[in-house]
């Protein structure tokens, strides 16, 4: 049996930041939701607030990605994560404002890095990473057992955990196990 890196699944809104080199001195920076690129300050958002650009500013995504692109000599680099908190989903993690946790770091030359390496890189820049629950998770025999494991307390605030995300050690494969109890309570 192969092992997986298990991380906590955060109930929020998917937030992506990408930086692409145009030439040696010029870069293009994008902040996106799952379906919208926020390339103009007046671009409409799903919420009454734009949590995507708020997190990009709070954590200086453009500067961080530029530093990473230059350091690793990348054509482009992408950071994906969850923006979460008050008013984002029903599960607000006891926040009165918003926060961000990364879950994918993707390099143009290597693809998606594994969760442990990504967390270490982001730590240098003060960007929170999803909690790593187990670095060597072995899948149980049944889906029922997996869902039972996914149903637990959040490492973020001790409340109900949405579930777990499992990634291969090379970062190439991933899948989710979402708690049925969480779905019934927050999305039922």
Annotate the secondary structure layout.
Layout: E1 3-9, E2 13-21, E3 27-32, H1 51-58, H2 61-71, E4 76-85, E5 98-107, E6 111-112, H3 115-124, E7 132-138, H4 143-150, E8 163-167, E9 174-178, H5 180-187
Antiparallel strand pairs: 1-7, 1-8, 2-3, 2-4, 4-5, 5-6, 8-9
Q: Which short descriptors sum up this protein?
A:
188 residues; alpha+beta; five-stranded antiparallel β-sheet; four-stranded antiparallel β-sheet; 32% strand; globular
What would you note in describing this structure?
With 188 residues, the chain is α+β, with helices and mostly antiparallel strands. It is built from five helices and nine strands; from the N terminus they run βββααβββαβαββα. The strands form two sheets. It has a five-stranded antiparallel beta sheet. The chain has a four-stranded antiparallel beta sheet with strand order 7-1-8-9. The radius of gyration is 17 Å and the shape is globular. The model has no long low-confidence stretch (mean pLDDT 93).
């Amino acid at each position: 049996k192969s092992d997986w890196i298990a991380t906590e699944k955060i109930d929020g809104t998917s937030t992506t930041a990408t930086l692409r080199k145009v030439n040696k001195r010029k870069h293009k920076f994008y902040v996106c939701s799952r379906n919208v690129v926020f390339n103009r300050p007046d671009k409409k958002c799903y919420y009454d607030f734009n949590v995507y650009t708020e997190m990009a500013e709070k954590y200086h995504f453009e500067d961080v990605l530029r530093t990473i692109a230059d350091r690793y000599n990348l054509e482009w680099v992408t950071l994906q994560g969850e923006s979460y908190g008050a008013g984002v989903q029903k599960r607000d993690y006891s926040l009165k404002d918003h926060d961000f946790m990364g879950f994918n770091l993707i390099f143009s030359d290597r693809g998606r890095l594994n969760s442990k390496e990504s967390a270490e890189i982001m730590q240098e820049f003060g960007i929170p990473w999803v909690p790593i629950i187990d670095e060597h998770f072995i899948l149980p025999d049944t889906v029922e057992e997996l869902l039972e494991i996914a149903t637990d307390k959040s490492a973020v605030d001790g409340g109900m955990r949405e579930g777990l995300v499992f990634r291969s050690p090379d970062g190439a494969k991933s899948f989710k196990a979402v708690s049925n109890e969480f779905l019934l309570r927050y999305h039922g």
